[in-house]
Amino acid sequence: MPHEIILGIDPGSRATGYGLISWEGNSARFIGAGVIRPDPRLNFAKRLERIYSGLTEVIARNNPTVSAVEGVFQSVNARAALLLGHARGVGILAAVHGGLPVFEYSPMAVKQAVVGYGRAEKPQVQHMVQIVLKLSKRPAQDAADALAVAICHAHSSCIKGR
Amino acid sequence: MPHEIILGIDPGSRATGYGLISWEGNSARFIGAGVIRPDPRLNFAKRLERIYSGLTEVIARNNPTVSAVEGVFQSVNARAALLLGHARGVGILAAVHGGLPVFEYSPMAVKQAVVGYGRAEKPQVQHMVQIVLKLSKRPAQDAADALAVAICHAHSSCIKGR
Fold first, then answer.
1. What spatial distance separates the first Cα and last Cα of chain A, rounded to whole Å?
2. Shortest CB distance from B90 goes to which of A44, A72, A89?
3. B4-160: CATH homologous superfamily?
4. How many CA atoms lie within 13 A of B72 on its CB side?
5. How far B36 CA sits from the closest chain A CA (Å)?
6. Which of A93, A97, A103 to mutate to probe the B interface, most B CBs <10 Å?
7. ipTM of this predicted complex?
8. Residue B71 contacts A where some CB pair is shorter than 8 Å
9. Tell me: the pLDDT tens digits for A11-40?
10. Catalytic: which of A57, A70, A121, A145?
11. What 3-state DSSP class applies to A70?
């Protein structure tokens, strides 16, 4: 796999995590991560716009070469799925508008890639992300999930021999 | 209610209907309507981009002053809700980026406003849209649903005394 800058996205209507890693020669390096939290007093349409514009800004500042988006639990209920769908839709659109290919990975695939166990708990994911990326402190949960999906993409790409 | 050009949107990942009406002095006039059908051979991210860019084009061409988006059935299943959420998310984003206020109406409110019966069938909606807007032929279903939500907004705004 050639040198890539991977943008991981963990979409959510209240909090959308993002994480950037550089991947070269089979090793991951942390670039940055954060969480976009639209002001809850904004109406839903404006909150979606904040997610889109926040990710667009992250892309413009960091020039990733590819994006990886966390998929969805099968068990989620219809209302939660609908809200999540809106956030994922505008997140994916920001990536497409930024010229990035978009890859999607299920939460189970992400946990398998990062922790080695598809049913791992969130603190385990945070812990392994901290170790793999040699971070001095544990990343916030949404940022850790976004970094985890970026790491998953790096590994999956390796496996596919890219 | 002052003169408004209302863009109605009926989002869907396979087909997104749009309809434009002019509303002045308590009477509706048909401007245009259509359906955006992203090429099913495109990947999901690109299909979302087609919905967004299609609506953006419609907005640029017609300069609506407000948008109204069809809400969601409560009974829809989680997977359908998730797909619909993506399409609604990028549709709402196109409206926000076009500078339009976004109003949402439940399918029941739309049917009530157009047919006078919240549980009306789709052909009844098509029929009443044709009559209200004095169309020479029955509009396609997704276009009719979008026109119906635009008509609903016009009526609801009247009721609210705007």
1. 5
2. A89
3. Ribonuclease H-like superfamily/Ribonuclease H (3.30.420.10)
4. 25
5. 16
6. A93
7. 0.87
8. no
9. 999 999 999 999 988 889 999 999 999 999
10. A70
11. strand
